[in-house]
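Here's what a typical entry looks like (Large ribosomal subunit protein bL32):
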Amino acid sequence: MAVPARKTSKMKKRLRRTHQKVERPEISFDESLGDYRRSHHVSLKGYYKGKKVMK
């Protein structure tokens, strides 16, 4: 069984996790409302997929 020669430092461990990065939210223009909204989210006016879901 292979045994590492030295302990891996904290910095080296953290460098392996570089796939976790902040991405900007997907924003699309909703033509039925004439407003921008995030994908798969309720708009600020309370609409989702063209239907009123909130007051």
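The first strand starts at residue 27 and ends at 30.

More examples are in the samples folder.
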